[in-house]
Amino acid sequence: MSDTQEATATPDRPRAKTREGIVVSNKMEKTAVVSVARRVRHGKYMKTVVRHKHYMVHDEQNECRPGDRVVIAETRPMSRLKRWRLQRILEKAVQINVAVKDVEGVPS
Q: Does the global pTM surpass 0.85?
């Protein structure tokens, strides 16, 4: 068993919960906000609806950007709102850099 697996799953402690979501914001230092969507059936109308929840995630290297698809894992409380850490980035967001003066029809 590797060191990372030993730290997260031991005989007396269960494996940490993981979620997959989209980074919404990374304007804080070493913290990102991740939106996780889950599908639930409505109790009265029996239609499947999507519920979203935002998690404050510890990002040690400040490597995730808004729009990235990430996997987060539950961890010890790191601050008042942070109880999740960034496990890995599944897919990087496409960055489009367009200067305002390059767009035609826009006065500079």
A: no
